[in-house]
Every structure is written in structure tokens, then in C-alpha cells.
Design goal:
Blueprint (H helix, E strand, L loop, with lengths): L20 E4 L4 E7 L2 E11 L5 E6 L1 H11 L10 E11 L2 E9 L34
Antiparallel strand pairs: 1-3, 1-5, 2-3, 3-4, 5-6
């Protein structure tokens, strides 16, 4: 019997690790989401993982602010640009959970400059080779 894997259209903590890069593939759209009984508007955007997998991601407020600081508030400008994954264990309600954040390539979640990062936060480092012709879609 063939083995099947549990796939999701949305990114999860299991798909990435801290310092992985994601690439923004489109400008996204603002959608209404419910969280802890409250309705809010969130940015949902298609990204590509290091593996080449295409996923949807709903940016939390911190990640959205980080990307606006890096690339501006016009998400169409984000297309083809990169973000850096950072996973932090935080208290959510009564429990501690891993939370996925996206930061610019040259700053960490605290806003500190990463010494080894390029000053140009729009391009991936040389060891990351994500090219349009390599995309599986």
C-alpha cells in the first residue's frame, strides 16, 4: 500500500526551522480571521519554502510589521523577496507554544542586526539558490 503524507496548503512549524529563508511569491490578500474568539484582518500570502514547496502563510502582526519595515507597505514589492524564519516559544493563553515569525534577512526577532547578514535585506545569501526555473509549479 502506498504511503501518503499529511499535506497542508498552510505553512506549519514542522515545515521550517529558525534561519530558513522563505520567498514571497505574490502580494497576498487581507482576510478576516478569528483568533481566541475575536475577529481580525490578517495578511495571507503565498510563499516558497527552502524545499521548493509552495505554502500559504498568514502573517502575524509582528511578522507583518517586520516585512513592512524591510520592504514597505506595498506587498506587491515583496514579490521575489525573502524573509528569514525565526521560531520562538511563547505563552499563548495558558500554554507555551512555538510561534513562527518572519524577519528581514539582516535582523533578528528583537530587531538586532545579524552580523553575518548582508546589508541588503532584499536578496538571499549566496548559499541559497531559489530560481524561477527550479520552481516545481
Amino acid at each position: 500500500m502506498p504511503k501518503v503524507k499529511k499535506d497542508s496548503l498552510f505553512i506549519s512549524i514542522d515545515d521550517v526551522k529558525t534561519n530558513d529563508l522563505i520567498k514571497f511569491l505574490e502580494e497576498g490578500e487581507e482576510v478576516e480571521k478569528e483568533f481566541q474568539g475575536k475577529s481580525r484582518i490578517a495578511l495571507q500570502i503565498t510563499i516558497m519554502l527552502k524545499s521548493g514547496d509552495k505554502k500559504l502563510m498568514t502573517l502575524n502582526g509582528t511578522s507583518k510589521a517586520n516585512m513592512i519595515d524591510a520592504y514597505g507597505d506595498d506587498t506587491a514589492v515583496w514579490i521575489g523577496k525573502y524573509g528569514r524564519v525565526e521560531i520562538a516559544n511563547q505563552k499563548i493563553g495558558k500554554d507555551f507554544k512555538d510561534v513562527l515569525y518572519i524577519t528581514s534577512l539582516n535582523k533578528n526577532l528583537k530587531g538586532e542586526v545579524i552580523p553575518s547578514a548582508s546589508a541588503d535585506a532584499t536578496t538571499a545569501p549566496d548559499d541559497v539558490d531559489i530560481k524561477a526555473e527550479d520552481l516545481p509549479f
